Prior knowledge:
Layout: H1 8-14, H2 30-35, E1 51-55, H3 59-70, E2 74-78, E3 89-92, E4 95-101, H4 112-120, E5 125-127, E6 139-143, E7 146-150, H5 158-174, H6 177-186, H7 189-203, H8 208-213, H9 221-230, H10 245-253, E8 261-263, H11 269-276, H12 291-294, E9 303-309, E10 313-318, E11 323-326, E12 329-331, H13 337-340, E13 343-344, H14 351-359, E14 362-363, E15 365-372, E16 391-394, E17 400-404, E18 412-420, H15 421-425, H16 432-446, E19 461-464, E20 475-476, H17 483-490, E21 505-507, H18 519-536, H19 552-555
Parallel strand pairs: 1-2, 1-12, 6-16, 9-13, 12-21
Antiparallel strand pairs: 3-4, 5-8, 6-7, 9-10, 10-11, 14-20, 15-18, 15-19, 16-17, 17-18
Helix pairs in contact: 3-11, 3-18, 5-9, 6-7, 14-17
Bound molecules: arginine.
Amino acid sequence: MTIPVTPDSTAADTDPRPLTMFGPDFPFAYDDYVTHRSGLGAVPTYRHGTEVAVIGGGLSGMVTAYELMKLGLKPIVYEADQIGGRMRSHPFDGHPDVVAEMGAMRFPPSSTTLFHYLDAMGLRTEAFPNPLADSTPSTVIDLKGESYYAQHLDDLPPVFREVSDAWQRTLEDHAELIPLQQAIRDRDTAELKRIWNDLVVRLDDQTFYGFLASSKHFASFRHREVFGQVGFGTGGWDTDFPNSILEILRVVITAADDHHRGIVGGSQQLPLRLWTDTPAGMAHWPDGTSVRALNGGSTRPRVTEVRRTAPHQVTVTDSSGEIRTYPAAVFTAQSWMLLNNIHCDDDLFPIDHWTAIERTHYMGSTKVFALVDRPFWKDKDPVTGRDLVSMTLTDRMSRGTYLLDHGDDKPGLICLSYTWSDDSLKLLPLDATERMNLMIKSLEEIYPGVDFRSHIISTPVTLSWETERDFMGAFKANLPGHYRYQERLFSHFIQDELDPRHRGIFLAGDDISWTAGWAEGAVQTALNAVWGVMHHLGGAAPADNPGPGDRYAELGPIRLCD
Ligand code: ARG
């Protein structure tokens, strides 16, 4: 539910300095970097046309490929499945205007680097119908068999306001919420690092649940339980209770769960447009060149092997049997792929980086969608005058139900259920029809008398990311004590101190970022990798637009002792 964690509807909207996903671990202004008139940098002309492998065609891979192309390099993109990765928009036969977002569906405006690429690719966004959001007609909270209908938080029984206040006070008293957000708005990196680094030291060993339970504002178990069930911003977060509280704080302080927008026409368009776009004024390549053109119209297939070959090269084998050798490679797929799907040489990374990859923790996620004849949920109940069906948060199996309106006389889409972790695990053995039936059962208990089935006009569409061969999870979520692993993976693009035999391969993707499960992290780490490749090949960022690697010594994340 939209518990007003950030003072967003009042102070934030009038404050000219927005809350953005600026740090806090590495407060480098990626948004300013990508919009700077001097560009991201240059490689020596003798490097122009050099092939660089980009493994994975999700958002991170496509941003990497696009920016490498603009530097005059030749990105060769490998993709095992479809371009887009977890930005996957599932079409429906005969209904070209509707897509089901199987992965990323809602994007906070605080992801300013992501929004730069959305704008550059000519994509528009619209308000996403989150719980209690301004544009969401109504929300139903259904817990322990009781349903509450609301347009605003204050329409709900007092316990929900108490929980909201308890969270706000806990963040203020135990996580320096107010000064942290002030430092983000001010882009005061010294202050931000001072406060955040102290929290990292204090809280890396703490779970989300432990953090709540140790706050006097959450002395009541019932308050902790309700908070877990309806969560903050976008829904119930109790499946994150075992994760590191630092993961949650990053989301909250950067407004990553606020004011979500959907991409009109589907999320997948962003990676697809980066693939086909023809930017003007690139180094080396003539206007009219796209990443697709450089790849001869299609991506290379699934990668099966990544090897070290002398001197300091990376050799990639794909499922067609083709073997190519590169002076640099960027790996953007889920990091576990390096452990089981792809045969790798040990020398790709130092041993401590392998440990970090092995220990990376991913959460599963399942969605179940049904296409319906029209947005019947907006019909009014003749007795109460309320919407027939609302955006729904519940402790039942469906957990979160989202109503996606495409116009009064057009088919609508219901995300019957969006679940994480254990709630997703419960659905894994079930096929699509069984999943749909289970969710309709939940919803018919919440909305007696509403005949959901009579409106459904498609077979159900469902996906669990944890059982997909090329993903094995929906997003990373660090466990307590994982900060060191995260810091190692994120900082790996700084390679001057590495043994030369470990240089030239770069990691990117939201799982390498500090904000897994947010596209901004995919974009930011892609820009790190692009800087890394540029530096590795003898290039540099412009003097007036230093890149993430140039400012790393000054702004880099705190390193914890062993
Ligand atoms: N950003 C995604 C969403 O809005 C996923 C967030 C979930 N991340 C997590 N650690 N639970 O649904």
